[in-house]
Amino acid sequence: MADASNRSGAIDTVMHEERLFPPPAEFAAQARIASFEAYEKLWNEVAADPEAYWERVGREELHWFEPFTQTLRWNEPYAEWFVGGKTNASYNCLDKHLDEGHGDRTAILWEGEPGDTRKLSYADLHKQVCKFANALRSLGVEAGDRVSIYMPMTPELVVAMLGCARIGAVHSVIFAGFSAEAIAERNNDAQAVAIITADAGWRRGKALPLKQTVDEALKKSSTVKHCIVLDRVNEAVHWQPGRDHWWHDLMRDASEECPATPLDSEAPLFILYTSGSTGKPKGILHTTAGYNLWAKKTFQWVFDHRADDVYWCTADCGWITGHSYITYGPLSAGATCVMYEGAPNHPDEARFWEIIERYKVTLFYTAPTAIRAFIKWGDEHVEKHDLSSLRVLGTVGEGINPQAWMWYHTKIGGERCPIVDTWWQTETGGVMMSPLPGAIATKPGSCTKPLPGVIPKIIAEDGTECGPDQGGMLTIAHPWPGMLRGIWGDKERYQEVYWSKVKGMYLAGDNARCDRDGYYWIMGRIDDVLNVSGHRLSTIEIESALVSHPAVAEAAAVGRPHELKGEAVAVFVTVKGCEPSEELRKELKLHVRKEIGALAQPDDIRFTNTLPKTRSGKIMRRLLRDIAAGREAVGDTTTLEDYSVLASLRQDEE
Ligand code: WTA
């Protein structure tokens, strides 16, 4: 059987979760999918003939410059959806609403961290995107070119994404917390021709420099010819004439006329780098029509969206959640979206609740790590604000422990809002499993049931399907429109990572179990990927960063349970040519920060004489996880340790 243990230990608490929360009657009465029977009927209809369903929905939901002639061409593991059709994601997000007479509808209600605000209608956003698309063209950017984006959460970040999509350029958004090294690695892998950034962005009252980091990255990114800089903070920046261009200069000269380019359904829309089980991040590739449709349809299903909703997703566009549920999904659906630039605790811990009250947010989507922080900060911050506008609450990024779920349900949802715990991945393009809020009763800690079009199967190590409550590898049985199309520049890795372990199935990389009611419970990764505050980190990436330091001989990184982050990064290091010290510990933390970014900085560093290894030389990660979690008694952790005794005691277990 697969290793079904959960590193964070959360499974111990959800294993016995029996509480069931049916959709509130008032909510169900007006929901799009208003009963379990309706959900089941739809799920069965799609499962019986996915192509017939997606053919119809594809035609209805997207704008087609040229209709497609084949719904799915499946040459495992390569899918092509809506073959022969021509569409454009920027058109679907903008022009379509203008065509339908909704140009005045508010698209973005933006709030900067210092408190500055902006409101953009669909017509305003359309105009900005057209101008920016022309600005890109004026620099010679063409369809198929890759463009990196390293920006703060401003409306211009969405404009940049849609501007690329409008002319068929492929964006690669890099989260603004990554280091210069990480940016350069991504620029080079994608062979980006341009990068879009800002002077800086606001974070907890401080200007976080971005252009400076990009300057550093561009020293090692030979393909990048242009750098577009948004003036967000009015910081002095270094300038390289010819290469660097102010956003406002380009926009001033750009025409507002820019018809969306009709693009092939399978034209690449974006690349988004994510961590896998090797040291090199994977450039997950999504294409135009299938991804766009999946983002739109899942947004409508999961949030039961209607025209008068005010929707707020607190993610950053640097992650897939921001791509699918800030940009492409809600904007295709014509939603009014709140967008916030900064930290949840600036100027104080009530900021999110203040925003919800101010904009009368009805649909709210955040992460369990944020919810755990809110719980710690105290209920008084919540109680000061009127949250009665809320009607659906969502979570994403990691499992939510039942205690946090109950707090979300009572304190934020006032016991009247369904909670949608959405399981999905960068690779899946959009939500795969989640309650439909008007149809599926929830159980705290379970992502409940698959969406229509998703056929999950849990498979044991020997390849057989698991029975109820048996943990195993989570796989998906049939292609779906939003699935990744590959890993940028690495055909073999795509096949090997996702399609080789279980025949004919997409391997998600998570362990899960399905209970007797057909509810799914995610139990953590099967590979060496950590989930720190909902962010995916590769242990090998962290280890590679550490061994690139001259004082490090060997390093092993593991996750350990952490009250707020879910998992914290614990590393074990053997040194060479020097003695372990407090200074070295600090230096190594900074080194990882410099190599990858602040989000990967180890929480604990332990020095050891040797890393515990099996007889065949494999690092005993399970033993290290136990030590890191304090489940295995060891001595003083500030000095050099020797785990070889523990290792020899454990040899037979690994
Ligand atoms: C984890 C984020 C439990 C999971 C959208 C997955 C979850 C990885 C959930 C993908 C959830 C995401 N319950 N685990 N509701 N949502 N995960 O690519 O391990 O950043 O494989 O996509 O996060 O992370 P990614």
Write the SSE topology:
Elements: H1 11-14, H2 25-30, H3 36-48, H4 50-61, E1 70-75, E2 78-83, E3 86-87, H5 89-99, E4 106-111, E5 117-121, H6 122-138, E6 146-150, H7 155-167, E7 170-173, H8 180-190, E8 194-198, E9 200-203, E10 206-209, H9 211-218, E11 226-230, E12 244-246, H10 247-253, E13 263-264, E14 268-274, E15 282-287, H11 288-303, E16 310-313, H12 320-332, E17 336-340, H13 351-359, E18 363-366, H14 368-377, H15 380-383, E19 392-396, H16 402-412, E20 419-422, E21 456-459, E22 472-476, E23 486-487, H17 491-499, E24 506-514, E25 520-525, E26 529-532, E27 535-538, H18 539-547, E28 552-562, E29 566-575, H19 582-595, E30 604-607, H20 621-628, H21 644-650
Parallel strand pairs: 4-17, 6-7, 6-8, 7-14, 8-11, 11-12, 16-17, 16-18, 18-19, 19-20, 29-30
Antiparallel strand pairs: 1-2, 3-13, 4-5, 9-10, 14-15, 15-23, 21-22, 22-24, 24-25, 26-27, 28-29
Helix pairs in contact: 3-4, 5-6, 5-7, 5-12, 6-7, 8-9, 11-12, 14-16
Bound molecules: 5'-O-[(S)-ethoxy(hydroxy)phosphoryl]adenosine (WTA).
Describe it.
Pfam families: ACAS_N, AMP-binding, AMP-binding_C. Mg(2+) binds at residues 547, 549, 552. Its EC number is 6.2.1.1. There is one protein chain. By secondary structure, the chain is α/β, with parallel strands linked by helices. It has a domain at 529-651: ANL, C-terminal domain (GMP Synthetase, Chain A, domain 3). It has 21 helices and 30 strands. The protein has an eight-stranded mixed sheet with strand order 12-11-8-6-7-14-15-23, sandwiched between helices. Strands 5-4-17-16-18-19-20 form a seven-stranded mixed sheet, with helices on both faces. Residues 1-13 have low confidence and may be disordered. The site of 5'-O-[(S)-ethoxy(hydroxy)phosphoryl]adenosine has 22 residues, from helix 12, strand 20, strand 24 and strand 25.
